[in-house]
Amino acid sequence: xxxxxxxxxxxxxxxxxxxxxxxxxxxxxxxxxxxxxxxxxxxxxxxxxxxxxxxxxxxxxxxxxxxxxxxxxxxxxxxxxxxxxxxxxxxxxxxxxxxxxxxxxxxxxxxxxxxxxxxxxxxxxxxxxxxxxxxxxxxxxxxxxxxxxxxxxxxxxxxxxxxxxxxxxxxxxxxxxxxxxxxxxxxxxxxxxxxxxxxxxxxxxxxxxxxxxxxxxxxxxxxxxxxxxxxxxxxxxxxxxxxxxxxxxxxxxxxxxxxxxxxxxxxxxxxxxxxxxxxxxxxxxxxxxxxxxxxxxxxxxxxxxxxxxxxxxxxxxxxxxxxxxxxxxxxxxxxxxxxxxxxxxxxxxxxxxxxxxxxxxxxxxxxxxxxxxxxxxxxxxxxxxxxxxxxxxxxxxxxxxxxxxxxxxxxxxxxxxxxxxxxxxxxxxxxxxxxxxxxxxxxxxxxxxxxxxxxxxxxxxxxxxxxxxxxxxxxxxxxxxxxxxxxxxxxxxxxxxxxxxxxxxxxxxxxxxxxxxxxxxxxxxxxxxxxxxxxxxxxxxxxxxxxxxxxxxxxxxxxxxxxxxxxxxxxxxxxxxxxxxxxxxxxxxxxxxxxxxxxxxx
Length: 602
Hints:
Elements: H1 5-13, H2 20-26, H3 37-54, H4 56-66, H5 85-131, H6 134-139, H7 142-184, H8 186-233, H9 235-240, H10 244-296, H11 302-343, E1 362-369, E2 380-387, E3 392-397, H12 403-410, E4 418-423, E5 426-427, H13 433-437, E6 440-443, H14 454-459, H15 467-476, H16 480-484, H17 503-517, E7 521-525, H18 533-547, E8 551-555, E9 567-572, E10 575-580, H19 582-586, H20 592-601
């Protein structure tokens, strides 16, 4: 039994490398920062000022701890006695005040600029997504697209707000701390650089390895959770195929892997803690021991010794935090690259003429078509037919014959490979897509409603309609009675994708939506095939009213619903093999339509 989770497991193990090209592509995001670049530069100025003022703390604190009558100040400032503890404290408070002020403006400016840029990015992303052609959504999963807008943008926000700022702050800290240590004593600085950075690098390597193991354990735990979800969701299949034992073993293998990884992680953490306790703390103790000897020998003062310790702590903290911040920046760059690639896809063209005085006549002339992702498979082959304004054309045939493809071409979701489609004798390529689609309404087999109210879903056909027009549309769609039976009537929430409504109710809401749109062309895509007899009767009655005076295309599953069609097109393998009225086609006992009808009758 193949698990749907297997493909996801393989996908999760793929690690995206951030290449030079990825960095180049990620720079495209800065076009969203460009309108705010002046303010953003001021934010970086405040970052620099806050970082520099922060670096006064170790020196002043060292001076405060080591101050006595014989000590000289670490740094002498004309007119200020930095050997007086009261003056030192006052100076520290002034430095803290400036640091707090600089930090406030830095965070405020970065947050303001980031949120404005991300608002522009969200708006641009959604705007482009809704204008992308249907083929774009055939190539991209909706879940991944929503992830790009939500998860990836949040990741970019965190990096722009804090990570980049802190990343550069650490380099400023390292540079300043090293400079001060060298200023105190170049000999002491060499001892520190020979010990602390080496131990810090080893600690970083340990930490990264432990995080890698933890991530593996987390990924395995996520996969085990997906097994639970799959099994419980598909429990009927599991029991029907008597695969309880198989699923139990599959889950047990996963949790055994989790146990092994967590134990291994625990061992490595134990080694890491032992290393920290003995080597890193021992190394720091050694450097401090060396510094203390230098103080006792009179090579450095007590204030310099204390400041040295504090600057060393700042230096070690900065060294250890850089790899994690760099990893987060890389992750954001990867996300930005993918999102920017999506935003550079071609949108649907907005040119073309407006349809004026449109009657609803449609003609296909030698139309051939293959889907962009499957060019080798010809879905439609030399299709020719004509539908006069107000006539009803039915499309019948087995699954994959090309019926739904014709409806997609009518909506100009795709361009044909050969031939022409004409509306009122105008080539479809010369007509504005927005103008054309405004004249067409679709009632599909599987109605997707939005998660708002009944009224909002009907209004989707014409957002400017009045309450009276909405009520009239509901009456014509045979939906008014069941809507009024709800406690909240037209304000009733339909739930996610209309889950609170039955199939027949959703169909009638879709019909009301089509009534409100008042189209010239109507496409019914097997609109009653999934309904029970009572619901079908109500829906069919509403459809009959809706089709009056409109050019209609019916994709039929039940041939009994198209007996009165003006023209029936019988498709096989993308070709029209028969066409005519019901009585004409049924009279040919060797024809495809006759055989299809017999299959349904038996």
